[in-house]
Please model this.
Amino acid sequence: MTELDGTDAAALLLTYNEAVDWINGLIPFGIRPGLERIESLMSMLGNPHQRLKFIHVAGTNGKGSTCAFLTSVLLQAGYDVGTFTSPYITKFTNRFQYNGEDIPEGILLKLSNRLRPLVREMASTPLGSPTMFEVSTALALLYYAEECYPDVVVWETGLGGRMDVTNIVAPVVSVITNIGMDHTDVLGDTIEQIAGEKAGIIKPGVPVVTCATQPEAVKVIQEKAQQLQSSVYLAGDQFSYHRLDSNENGQSFHFTGPFRDLDVRIRMQGSHQCDNAAAALMVLELLRQYMAFMLDDNDIALGLENAFWAGRFEKVVDEPRIVLDGAHNPEGAESLAKSIIDVYPHNKLILMMGMLANKHHEAYLQHILPLVDTLILTEPDFRRKMDAAELLQIVERVRPAIAKQELEIIVEPEWAKALDLLKSRTEAEDLGVVSGTLYLIADVRAALLHQTDSEKGW
Model:
């Protein structure tokens, strides 16, 4: 029996698809907060994460967009940038990017074969098998430390912060975009508890930037930072912004920071994206002021303006007008409702939505349902989907108090048929919106853009 890199040749994964299937095959191990397994994996691999610089991004909403703003500016300024995000919209490789490009399938295969025997070895110990997200995180760290060597890695948390696998790293700046009610089954059911989990990414002496607004959340973050002697840069305090204009092509805002003022423009829509861009800009100002990053004004302006993040208030079709937005919690729904009113004048709003179970759907509907003329309830193609009929019961419960009297409700469990209904019901002066879990957004986006290689998943 031959061996290759210490791996039994007979057990090698032979193709990219086999590697992805192996990693996704770990999904049944679930979400298991804690750092023991990732620390053990990193130790086996020589702690590659200790050779990298990270910007660690946590928060309830806006993490991906903030990562996109940071990545775009740093690339524009000539830096080599790794970007680790989740979930992905099109392909599994989306989550591991270097200079805006997905990890090559061959390298993902090679690194999977390197990790697989270590995962099997750990599975036989009291620690148990690493989860899918733990293996993905380890793969990302190997990719950046041993294959492409970025100057900095923009590093998004998976769930929470304190016990999230990504918290193994020591960042140069930490970011907490905002605090909202999501993943309450894991993170706690109060703003204070959730803020405590997110604040777990704060490290001793490492500055933290946040757009959290609730007094109780701000207090938790500030107290944690004070314990660790970390400086806090709080939106509305150390930095602020106000919008200057907004239209279908983008929006601009004036940023006031501790070091200077700037006027910038972004193409991403919705006032919440100004929050995300302002947080990213504050991070960039810290890198520039204290960490010797060379970031000139033109690169900052171009990088912010050109930033893009799929499936976040994204208009994908003009005729009929269809916007996709991965809002799946109350705060996301509130931002979506504001953005619809702000950006797209319309006659009727036709909303197609599909959700996962165990989310705050009543609170979600409180924000968006008052705007809707036709509601199409469907189901994402995902194992933890909520049945459309069950979602209908929630809608009917809240409808009398908040919905338009003439609201039309259609239940179509098959998302592709629901999409056909959305397209046929959305007339020239109307606006079609698809919202809910990103698992639904991924499929709908691939269908509307005729992408044949879409994989979608966590």
About this structure: The longest strand covers residues 240-247. The longest helix spans residues 271-290. The chain has 15 helices and 19 strands.
